[in-house]
Amino acid sequence: MFNKINSTLLLFSICFLSCKEAKKENTIQNQEIEISLKKSYNGDFLIGTALNTGQIKEVDAKQTTLITKEFNAITPENDLKWEQIHPEKDTYNFEVSDAYVAFGKKNNMHVVGHTLLWHSQLAPWVNEIKNKDTLVNQITKHINTIAGRYKGKIDSWDVVNEALNEDGTPRESIFYKLFGDESYLELAFKLAAKAAPDAELVYNDYNLWKPAKREGVIRVVKNLQAKGIKIDGVGMQAHWSIEGPSIEDIENSIIAYSDLGVKVMFTELDVTALPNPWELDGAAVEQSYERYEGDPKMDPYVDGLTEEAKQKIAKRYEDIFNLFLKHKDKISRVTFWGVNDGQSWLNDWPINGRTNYPLLFGRDNKPKEVYNNVIALKNKAK
Ligand code: XIL
């Protein structure tokens, strides 16, 4: 009798324990099969996104969940630009930038600073400066204050953004004009290296696939290197369309930049399927095409993409990510310019008020079919 009870108890506990084990295994499996971009591309390169002010402030819990699940790198879409963070000579706005950095740290993300020096979205008071010495002083204060405040917290700085013309010559920005040459880049990189010694320092620009512009980047990087000034990477913005640029041009730039001994990053990836009022070059934010506003020909997918357009975008994203995977040894990060289609700047640029679909998540924050295509590439590659 006693033995019988004992063996029943034994059986019972074995069953209990093995059920518990099975349950534990199940949870592990479930965790493992919880798909995300950052997990799928883990070990290849970081997968980033750009956050707008609301996303930084976590106003929408659904978006916060999506951001932390899918991405392991972040860039502030606007809040660290000069006009936002330093709008008046002696006024700095650190409320959102502090929240941004805290968000990244809290979620163990790679935190990008965008950007220390850029002719666009510059505070108006800087444009009033008339001589080089004053500009040198102000750039010095700006970089020391901001890069210094986030020393050890911002992992990567876009030190200078968009210093080049399409043919690779220096852009005639206020910085170039008052310095009389490109040496303002030297100043900016030197200051950033001193104020944030552990941060990765990047030159960032659009259309860096263009052969002529590529030569300009090579000149800039080689000049800094020759002078012993730290530069760690080239950021290719990657505002692309379903039509171009060619994979070959992008690939040639990846190889050329990597040959300089710096990392390559894709810092602002999006793919537009809308007609472009092009003959417009690249992504210069100043350009706008008001005359096309409200023209239905320029905004064909207000009620959703056609099957054909969806497939074109999917194929384009596949080609792009296949290229990235081919060169994963040279690429450290791929950042999408925004979290979801609703947030994308491409709804308002270069024509205001259109309906664009350039990212992997829809207006409802759900992954689109193209998300599955991008994830599936990794399963194929395994
Ligand atoms: C864009 C933002 O996404 C918009 O919200 C803003 O109105 C204009 O700037 N190149 C860059 C980014 O380096 O900072 C720009 O971001 C897009 C082009």
Describe this structure in words.
- This protein is of the alpha/beta class and 382 residues long.
- The chain has a single domain, classed as Glycosidases (TIM Barrel, Alpha-Beta Barrel), CATH 3.20.20.
- It contains 14 helices and nine strands.
- The protein has an eight-stranded parallel β-barrel with strand order 1-2-3-4-5-6-8-9, surrounded by five helices.
- Helix 13 links the parallel strand 8 and strand 9.
- Helix 11 packs parallel to helix 12 and helix 13 runs parallel beside helix 14.
- The longest helix has 32 residues.
- The radius of gyration is 24 Å and the shape is globular.
- It starts with a helix and ends with a helix.
- About 6% of the residues have low confidence.
- The site of (3S,4R)-3-hydroxy-2-oxopiperidin-4-yl beta-D-xylopyranoside has 8 residues, from loops.
CATH level-two architecture:
Alpha-Beta Barrel
Number of helices: 14
Mean pLDDT: 91
Rg result: 24 Å
Instruction: Based on Cα principal axes, name the global outline.
Output: globular
Features:
alpha/beta, TIM Barrel, globular, 382 residues, 44% helix, 8-stranded parallel β-barrel
Structure at a glance:
The protein is an alpha/beta fold.
How are the SSEs placed, and which strands pair?
Elements lengths: L1 H32 L3 H4 L5 E6 L1 H4 L4 H10 L2 E4 L5 H4 L9 H12 L3 E9 L5 H4 L4 H18 L6 E6 L12 H6 L3 H13 L4 E6 L5 H16 L6 E4 L2 E3 L5 H13 L3 E10 L34 H20 L4 E6 L32 H13 L1
Parallel strand pairs: 1-2, 1-9, 2-3, 3-4, 4-5, 5-6, 6-8, 7-8, 8-9
Helix pairs in contact: 8-10, 11-12, 13-14
The chain binds (3S,4R)-3-hydroxy-2-oxopiperidin-4-yl beta-D-xylopyranoside.
